[in-house]
Amino acid sequence: MDNYKAYLGNVIYSQDKDTLVVKEKSYILVQDGIVQGIFKDLPEGFPQENIIDWGNNLIIPGFSDMHVHASQFLQRGMGMDKKLLDWLNTYTYPTEAKFQDKEHAKKIYGLFVDELVRQGTLHVNCFSSIHYEASEILFELLLERGLFAFTGKLNMDQNSPEFYLEDTESSLRSTEVFISNYRQKGNVQAAIVPRFTITCSEELLAGLGKLAQQYGTPVHSHMCEAISTIKASKELFPNYKNEAEVFYHNNLLGQTPTIMAHCIFMDDDVVQLMQNPNCMAVHCPDATANINAGGIMPVKKLLEMGINLAIGSDIGSGASLSIARGIASTIQHSKIRNMFDPQWEAVNLSEAFYMATRSGGRYFNKVGAFDKGYHFNALVIDDSNFPGENLTSLERLERFCYAGDDRNIVMRYIVGKELII
Amino acid sequence: MDNYKAYLGNVIYSQDKDTLVVKEKSYILVQDGIVQGIFKDLPEGFPQENIIDWGNNLIIPGFSDMHVHASQFLQRGMGMDKKLLDWLNTYTYPTEAKFQDKEHAKKIYGLFVDELVRQGTLHVNCFSSIHYEASEILFELLLERGLFAFTGKLNMDQNSPEFYLEDTESSLRSTEVFISNYRQKGNVQAAIVPRFTITCSEELLAGLGKLAQQYGTPVHSHMCEAISTIKASKELFPNYKNEAEVFYHNNLLGQTPTIMAHCIFMDDDVVQLMQNPNCMAVHCPDATANINAGGIMPVKKLLEMGINLAIGSDIGSGASLSIARGIASTIQHSKIRNMFDPQWEAVNLSEAFYMATRSGGRYFNKVGAFDKGYHFNALVIDDSNFPGENLTSLERLERFCYAGDDRNIVMRYIVGKELII
């Protein structure tokens, strides 16, 4: 039983959106980094030295951040009083343009990946910048850390400032080179990442869709985010009813695994396209509130309609990489939404935790829960700095999401290996 | 010039709601803990050893938390999916009832005051429990730490569980004893704190109002918080048009300094009562969102109407004692409100910072800004863990509020004295 380990603690994970599995003072049995089951007792003769006793701490799955801009790490928490397009032009494009410098990319992406790990995000879907070499650097850093990740070179060939723009042909060519070279290594996979419809010509989108289909590559973009961007998109693509159609008819929505950030304003026919099991909509509560887009995703409605939902930090319009905080914000903001638009209830802890773990992790190979056969990608939560008696494990989980921070995460495991920060 | 000190750093404070004063690389000159002015250079011969050089760090006023329940410190971040009255009965009243035990009060209030200081809250208006002795303990702890504070024994003689209720006469008697013994010591002052109209008989309210007038004691309560509580209050006090009238006609609204938490649902005549310069309304954004009250304070509207506004953490329905986070939440939640009710704009950093510092501190003697004659109650913010070049001090302040935490506060001063955590 040498390659078996048993992790003792109060275990919590999502079964489905409505069910949190809680196994207090139990052992997660792990063989070569893969969960074998959760047990109250171990078989007789199980080697004492293979037991990792986390005492009264909580053990939960690692978080999944399904929409984040690595290249905006430096601008978090600034310019928050601006509107989306102003904010992009004033802060974001100049910040991203700096990633032409490889040394800058190494430094900032290194800090970004460190911060992901510190916050307990073990699975991540992240934008780079338009720069090929910087995107390579990000891919390699994610790989080195052992994270489960999608990332790719950003595409944008129009409606962007002079200093931060590609020509269509070289954008397509370098994307194809990136995919061929970095299709999948370890648990990191190349993705196709058009910024959003406004900044991509139809020629570019069509070319990217062709690559997605040819290589079976996942797609990551923004959709139905703000009244202003929806309007601009409609003017640029008058032959399509909406942004979803632009993506769909260019083979970028559901033909391969597709992750669309925001999805705030969706008509019924867009909802129908997103009900494809290949698609996922990512709610980024803090980002959406900070850079006023005119609405909040109707999370409860989309959950009830069976759309795959996840949580994203969306740095830099989001300010914190903590997905635990993203869980609390998802619940809070859905409550505020409900106060003004009572037709959809607020979401609860079970639903938001599901989005942040099991549901968010669905494109990565068996992560985000502790079912048999899942990778043991886990966080140990020590909340002994909070006094309190006779609390349930669920109350402690809720308190960690609302009031805790990275200091409460005392261990991170990926495929059973300790991840050191 | 022995009793002079000069604190060098990037100084920021509020002039008024629309004006943030920023003095980069400047000296705050302080005599015996009182600000004398802010200067680019010091007079010749100023003793080198009296200069405290904070380098590139920010120096800002200490925060004011104008509505918080010290007795709910243990329950933060739990039961957040419940409605207000359910949450009070399930979590709050049992938690508060434990403060009958003096040892428990010493321990938990000690932790509470430590956490206030850690989060940079130097001025606080806090509820205790109904217990006389626990309220003494809280008063003494605030005094020992040198905080500027209002606190008092909580009153409630009806509509509360059997185990957490006073009789009217003893409630009034012990409140008067508390006020006589603890009227003002150092910078801590006794307040009169009826919980809310629902839990107070008219006899109790009238008696408290009489005490307030007799001793010139400030009043602290909740008002216009939730649809459910407004309705219940209307049934209990059918002779009054609304909660504000109940307080007003019992001498508990504006006759002495008055601090009312929440003020979400106010009719025009209530707004008019609150326009009294003696009154302050406290916005508790996280608390209001967590324990769904049915609305969000229309902050911009009330600011424009000239009502004194402050920010409160409102632990335990709020989960974090950080008022920096309260600033970010105030802005975020006002943006979400604006998305659904566009008639009032969102508030900006200047307005929210003003609420959290200068405006929040108005009842305490000259705190919350660095005008000449103000107490040097200040925080030093070291944000060197955030990389970034060529940022303005205001961008750094904004980033601290959105993305920083207590680790960025490297020094706290009260009346010029270092406060050690």
Q: Nutshell version of this structure?
A:
With 421 residues, chain A is of the alpha/beta class. Chain A is built from 13 helices and 18 strands.
Question: What does it look like?
Answer:
The structure is a homodimer of 421-residue chains. By secondary structure, chain A is an alpha/beta fold. The first copy, chain A, contains 13 helices and 18 strands. The first copy, chain A, has helices spanning 84-97, 102-118, 132-145, 168-182, 202-215, 227-236, 243-249, 268-274, 285-290, 299-304, 323-340, 349-359, 393-403; strands at 4-16, 19-31, 34-39, 51-61, 63-69, 121-127, 148-152, 154-155, 184-185, 188-190, 193-194, 219-223, 258-262, 279-283, 308-311, 378-381, 409-414, 417-419. The longest helix of chain A is centred in the C-terminal third of the chain and has 18 residues, at 323-340. The first copy, chain A, is globular and about 70 Å long. The two termini of chain A are 29 Å apart. The model of chain A has no long low-confidence stretch (mean pLDDT 96). At the A-B interface, α2, α9, α11 and α13 of A face α2, α9, α11 and α13 of B.
